[in-house]
Request: fold
Amino acid sequence: MSIRRYLIHVGAATALLASVLVAVNVTVDSFDVFALVRGKMVNVRLATALRMAKAYAIHTYRPDCLVLGSSRAEVGIRPAHGGWSCDRPYNSGLPAGQIYEARRYLEHAIAQGPVKQVLLGLDLEIFRTDGRHRGDFMEARLAHNSKARWSSYPVNELLGLALGADALLKSIDMLRNPVEVYALELSGERSTAWWEHESAGRSVRDLSADLLQGVATQIGKPGALAPGLDDRLPSLEELERIIELCREHGIELRLAINPTHVLLHATMADIGQQGTFLKWKRAIVQIAARAHSRGADVLLWDFALLNDLTTEPVPKVADRSQLMHWFWEPSHFRTAYGNLMVETIYSNRPTPVEIAVRPDVATISESERVYRVEFERWMHNHPAEIAAVKNWLAPTRKKYGIESGIENWHTENVNPGD
Amino acid sequence: MLFHSYVFLLAFLPITWAGFLLLKRQGRGRAAAWWLLASSLFFYGWWNPKFLLLILASISGNFAFGLALGGAAPGARKPLLLAGLAFNLGILGYFKYAGFLLDVFDQFTGQSHAPLAIVLPLAISFYTFQQISYVVDTYRSGKPECNFLSYCLFIVIFPHLIAGPITHHSKIIPQFAGFYDRTFHGIDYAVGLSLIAVGLMKKVWLADPVGGYFIGAYPLIDEGVPLGFFESWGVMTACALQIYFDYSGYADMAAGLGLLFGVRMPLNFFSPYKATSPIDFWRRWNMTLMKFLRDYIYIPIGGSRYGELRKYTASMVTMVVCGLWHGSGWNYIVWGVAVGLIIMFNNLWDRFLHFAPPVTALGRYLRMLSGRLVTFCCYVLPLAIFMFPSLSDGARMVKGMLGFQGFALPIFMADTLGALPGVHYADLPVIPGWSMLGWIGICLFVTYGMPNTEQLFGRYRPTQHSLSAETLQPERVLFTWHPNTVWAWIVGAMIVVSLTQLSHVREFFYFQF
Reply:
């Protein structure tokens, strides 16, 4: 064989095999990146590819309404709810998402086309100062503005999705099992099968222990939240940037402090962060008030109240069939709750109980006072739950060398005059 | 820019090669050299353009020292040499060792300085050593390289720029004359492309998967988790295989890329794990670095010319310098001392213990096997020190490898092996399952059961080396490469299979040096 023929054969073999690979990956399009074939569901593996899939989905669908926040907003708020007045709503909430990521995904969406409404679900966790984003976040996927829309696209990642072995395995998996149990719907919402995956056969109570430990690890870690939380922190500046971004683009922004189950409140108290939580709320209120006075279309709702819904008991027995009505577990509220939120914010419909208030600088102190009374009462009536939380969080407290703060949370951690 | 990245393989390389061939075909050899130089600087600047200034300053300075040495009066030559060495070692010392020296200063004086925020420029150890050899050789010969373009290209030509092999000016610069030859050397291109495919496969399908186990275990070791005998050996074997396939894969790609531009790179690895003694091992491992150390450290400080004690001292000094070349830290120094001691014992063994050669084939095979096993252990044990910046982590790993931290087998083996007398199982997170052992098994098979790339392509002499035909042992090689249809499809498949792994690239191990 001549060398010339050999080189032609090498080229032909490479081109042919690569073409087959690309054809399979692009046609199956497991992550809906190439958008050649649109199925009802987009199969995306949780935790590994959500940030990627949502960035490309926003590029493809050009949403005009956006839900932003962490997995709580992602799991609990249905973007297709009738309360919205838009054509292409999209849930851009991210698991363990941070406020910086929320801002970048909003910028990315604005770069694709006009955005009319944004609902930003707020949690203390997304304002952590020990990391702006998770490892699978990639800046290059997200456009800064319409001019940079294509130039910033990560060619390497697109080639990987067309040529990569991971993408090929995913394509084969998808061809064999078109509707995967845990998947992302076209509107960015987690499918209802998410719970099946997340619970993995465990009871709500077992899952509660795991997830509350996770929260405690996130916000209990020294340095994760600055003790003197105020509105000068970089993470709070990100919120101000989001507000300014919405003002510049004429976007109606609604801020919602997410519904917080009482066991999550107890978790914060146990690791000594409940005072930080209340200070954080005050900072949010001040930021929203300032923005409002500057003419921004921004309203703040506080759903982190203690009421019949947020004090819903966690099933005591380790029975997997017993589910909660308003929450998947104390860390994530269900869409039933999310629907009430959307109705409260956008339709002003009355809800079964008062699930939210519109806090402002004048009423925040009174709101805190009521909260403390309610929490104190709940603790008094639920010593077994307090003991369970303390027990669950004992390893985390030991790891970070912190004492349980739940017994004296109201005296040590909360300074009403602060 | 990494060799195993889409941007390199699908954009940089095709454009650079096409431009080079076009200019070569037109007989514009000088333009081809400039094109290759510009491309190489672009390749280097892709990482951090600021350091282009440093590498260009280093090149210009050394070129000037060469010219000055060539024309200097006899009395001025030695000061010029010392100035040239100080120039190179000063740059290397500042960027690579200043932080470490400050730490040592603080440790001994009890003072406390803020850590120096110095970024280590890519490839600084490689291009500095190459230029030290150039300055020293020019001092010895009095004949400098007078063509700045050729000298510049010798340093920055991208196939060897980032992680070696360490090339010698006398072996590389003369090959640039081939740029003016209008003919295409198809066989070089065929071998070059095939070598790139083999190197890619080694990197992304052997080094990275097996290396993942060491990287996964690292945080546990760093947290002080004591590893048992099997865990320690599993992790360090994975680490040793990763380093070998990573670096030899890079060397294969460098050799292949060089051939595409008509430049034969020096051979850098020749099946080191098939060595039957530590001395033999270091003759086969990172051969260009070891040759540099031999020519510019070991021999100048006496080598074997002044008796046994001086020889052992020279070996020790050479290996400590070798350790320090890899990085600044006590772990590298301790590693150098440990390897120096091993080489000394090897020398003593060869000097005082003479065993009759086995008469049977089985005896010869067993001796070879035991030699390889001892050699592997002699490499992997010090490697445990080398890999951990903290000496206590390294010492703990060595303790585990010596059996001081238990002999439990991983729990997943219990289902397969069942209850065995004297054997107990434990949950060993460092050994995640059979897959790890499977990857290690595959790598060991490729290492010991297959021909190395020099043997595979030996007929076409892909690299420069001085190995004898006996060493190459072509008659014992299972298979060799030929430019035929089967190999064309194998190479095409290797390229595509490698491309599937490039979406999550891991840097070459030797980039850090």
In short: Strands of chain A lie at 41-42, 65-68, 89-91, 117-122, 184-185, 252-257, 298-302, 327-329, 332-333. The first strand of chain A starts at residue 41 and ends at 42.
